[in-house]
Amino acid sequence: MFGIAIHGGAGVISRASMTPESEAAYRRDLESALDAGYAVLARGGSGLDAVTTAVRILEDSPLFNAGRGAVFNHEGINELDASIMDGKDLQAGAVAGVRHVRNPVLLARAVMEDSPHVMLTGTGAEEFALERGVELVPRSYFFTERRWNQLERARKGDRLSAADLGYYGTVGAVARDQQGNLAAATSTGGMTNKRWGRVGDSPVIGAGNYADNRSCAVSATGSGEYFIRSVLAHEIAALIRHRGLDAATAAREAVSQSLAGIGGDGGVIVIDHAGRIAMEFNTEGMFRGARDASGRREVSIY
Ligand code: ASP
Fold first, then answer.
1. Engineered SS bond to 61: which of 29, 40, 78, 195, CB 3.0-4.6 Å?
2. Which residue among 78, 201, 230, 255 has the greatest number of ligand 1 atoms within 8 angstroms of its CB, and so is best to mutate?
3. Whose CA is nearest to atom 8 of ligand 1?
4. Domain map of the chain by residue range?
5. Does domain 3-300 have CATH number 3.60.20.30?
6. Which of 170, 186, 221, 283 is catalytic?
7. Does residue 170 have an active-site annotation?
8. Which residues touch 139 (CB under 8 Å, ≥6 apart)?
9. What is the pTM of this model?
10. What does the pLDDT read at residue 12?
11. Contacts by 131-136 with C-beta closer than 8 Å and gap 24+?
12. What would the mean pLDDT of 17-41 be, rounded to a whole number?
């Protein structure tokens, strides 16, 4: 069974302040990422290509906290993190703190495929992008009015909910292809008003992203520090591999115990070795979608 799941972040706009127009816009972009990723799988493409395709589309949307729509750090600069992992051979690539890369997922993939390293940061990562021909953009490309307003409110110390501050809009995708190979990708602008140089869970292999054909592929979104401390993506893979759980049971146990147990919030998307998809979260909602060869096709927010 092949399939794909995507997310556009947990901690969504509260139900009360979501207008029909903005809900339609979110759904439209989620559907186009989901369908483009699924199309790669349906024509026999790799899970790696499917997650790259889906995440790239979400990065290009101004609605999600990744790529174009990334949040600002305290200094008013966008610093982006991303990672990708191939479940076939546990190859992985990641970038952290990049400021000029249009699609950090493409750079993470280049790190995986064209370098001996797993993670590159900051200017070293951008120098590598230049060498590999990965598109660089001026910082103004990432300016959106909405994210700027969120930063100003956060700097003032307004009492805002995580959702209103624009937290947790990270994007990600997990897939299982027709050969049974799993892949995961995650990309983010991090947290609004974060300290300069702060790196979250999204580029940390095992925390915000993981893929292993023997267990599952996972992409996470939420309070990154807690995902790092609970090594949450790998925790789900370990529950599946060592205890024989399915995706849904493992995701529920990890989010409700390992993550919530230390005070973290957020969500995960998981596809296991049998192609079973789980989308689990402990926030009000999570932008998400799933599509597989059984005919399932759904996009949901709450
Ligand atoms: N997990 C991300 C981070 O901490 C934030 C998010 O999911 O939106 O950087």
1. 29
2. 201
3. 168
4. 3-300
5. yes
6. 170
7. yes
8. 77, 78, 99, 100
9. 0.96
10. 75
11. 132/107, 134/101, 134/103, 134/106, 134/107, 134/110, 135/101, 135/102, 135/103, 135/106, 136/100, 136/101, 136/102
12. 95
